[in-house]
């Protein structure tokens, strides 16, 4: 069988297949001899259960003829939660069997990370299986499916184009599975707030009523197909097939979701915080533990936020005073005036988005050059800048990052939201570029993906926004320290970004713990940051449907700065910023309590 498969392949391709098959045989069928082997095996099994994950990673695409993953989607099943609980309990039991005295230092760290992660996941599934919002305005299944197909599915040849159509034909089946979960939520009387219904119903109606040319699943597909060297007959056939798939699968699927939203809209939650849902208070504590990787209480984080808002506001006032602004106004009022000042805004011309993207790219390139002095190695993967797709820009965040493919076939992407010109005042652009690209998300994520010394689990098996978002926010300050924001207005942009994250600590706990309304949270954010009304609304509504995630940024940054100061105080002249960054970045994406152990270890080694 294998000989038949390999027949006709080039020597290098055949060797690659043989090595991969041998590795998988060893991974799947040999008795686990180490915790790394066990977690690696579990990770591969998990990947094979998720065709989307296999596409996302990229390296599996060369074996798509064998795996067929690029023509599949994950279809929700009735017993998914029960199966996941059984699997998690089994994995946790296995991990505890590994004797710490027989593990290496790195393996002991791996064990701590895996148990921390799996126990949190198990608690959520057992106690709060339906306390999320599968349909929401920023990360709902209806948006995620379209974004995955438009942005992640490769179309490099006719076969991959056909796989795209096969996937699109499965979308209705995916949504039928989601609908069953939504109905279970309804049985448990869990409904999102009214504003979520408004946004999602509008989005679904737009998808349903799109013309083909406006539909992202059609327009993005045909744009890529037109770049292939195909015959006119092939292109016409693909054109007809994707239209048929949209008519028979996508649109009916969207109508199913729309029907549920309309039917249940009368039951919309009158409150905004997760406290108002069944078990919401305990669920929020678990979200804090999961996202911040700490045991801080909601009250502790709320007070931390208030303190940081005051500190950062004072520094911003110093700069604004030096620039001659009216000291009788609050910092937020002055920053809001700056947002409205045409001197800091792009002209709303037809080519505005292209101009802004090019300007962002120049900032990223400059940062890459400067940052070589702060790290032992720089990522090999390229990073590019794109505008957020029009179909999601009205509700998407100001910017976000998409990781590169592991095999280098797809670069990292910094997506900038250019929907509202007031979202892109020039003084705030540098900090967003540093956060999303270099030295922020792209540097950290690509560095981990390219780190061959990491085990499979440490490279792909665990993610925490306390680390990744904490690092990205730390990176903004690092860029300032490196001289990349010498203009005082650029420093104001960085401080505005930091106070924005500090405000998050206040408003997230305010809504989900102290029972603030959406409007109270919006007013607090507006008055303290000077962000535009559009930005404030989008952000506050994001925190409502994603409880706790917004806390991770500032909590992570505070920990990293605390650890850097500890290293500088203890090492004095021996302190090396490159060594500190390696201690933080060379170990994947660990919880903050692991980062602290690693930095303390670096300090001890430098002293001895």
Describe the biggest sheet?
Answer: 3 strands, mixed
Low-confidence stretches: 1-23
Strands in their spatial order, largest beta sheet? 1-3-2
Return Rg in Å.
25 Å
Mean pLDDT: 92
The topology string of helices and strands comes to HHHHHHHHHHHHHHHHHEEEHHHHHHHHHH
Content of β-strand:
under 5%
Span between N and C termini?
57 Å
Our count of helices gives 27
Q: Would you write up a description of this structure?
A:
This protein is an all-alpha fold and 608 residues long. Among the domains are: 131-270, no CATH class; 284-557, no CATH class. 64% of the residues lie in helices and 2% in strands. It has 27 helices and three strands. The chain has a three-stranded mixed β-sheet with strand order 1-3-2. The longest helix has 33 residues, at 232-264. 41% of the residues are buried. The model is unreliable at 1-23 (pLDDT under 50). Keywords: Lipoprotein, Membrane, Transmembrane, Transmembrane helix. One of its GO terms (molecular function) is glucose-6-phosphate dehydrogenase activity. InterPro entries: DUF885, G6P_DH_AS. The chain crosses the membrane at residues 12-30. This is Lipoprotein.
Key phrases:
disordered N terminus, mainly alpha, 27 helices, DUF885, 608 residues, Lipoprotein, G6P_DH_AS, 2% strand, transmembrane helix, 3 strands, three-stranded mixed beta sheet
